[in-house]
């Protein structure tokens, strides 16, 4: 038996953050739900693209590309969630 993978630490941390957000009073859950769904819908194609590029090019190039795409997708998701919150969606 070895050391547990860092994945479990990250996963546990994300669960704790999500729980704190949901249980915190005054959290706009509608905006949060829109942001999460938009982010998932935008990042999944980015991840598939990065895995394909990594297989054909290099992992370093794919990591740089994925970082740029993830940043752009996060800004895009936050903008859509904010606009959705303004419109009452």
Report on this structure.
It is a single chain. The chain has 89 residues and is mostly helical. The protein has a domain at 28-87. 84% of the residues lie in helices and 0% in strands. The protein has helices spanning 6-23, 29-56, 59-87. 8% of the residues are buried. The mean pLDDT is 82.
Distance between the termini: 49 Å
Helix-strand makeup class: mainly alpha
Helix content: over 70%
Q: Summarize the helix and strand pattern as letters.
A: HHH
Question: Quick recap of the structure?
Answer:
The protein is mainly α.
What's the topology here?
Layout: H1 6-23, H2 29-56, H3 59-87
Helix pairs in contact: 2-3
Task: Give a quick set of tags describing it.
89 residues, 3 helices, mainly alpha
């Amino acid at each position: 038996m070895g050391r547990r993978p860092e994945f479990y630490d990250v996963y546990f941390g994300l669960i704790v953050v999500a729980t704190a957000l949901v249980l915190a009073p005054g959290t706009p859950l509608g905006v949060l739900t829109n942001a999460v769904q938009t982010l998932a819908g935008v990042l999944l194609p980015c991840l598939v693209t990065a895995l394909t590029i990594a297989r054909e090019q290099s992992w370093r190039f794919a990591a740089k590309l994925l970082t740029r795409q993830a940043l752009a997708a996060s800004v895009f998701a936050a903008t859509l969630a904010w606009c959705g919150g303004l419109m009452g969606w």
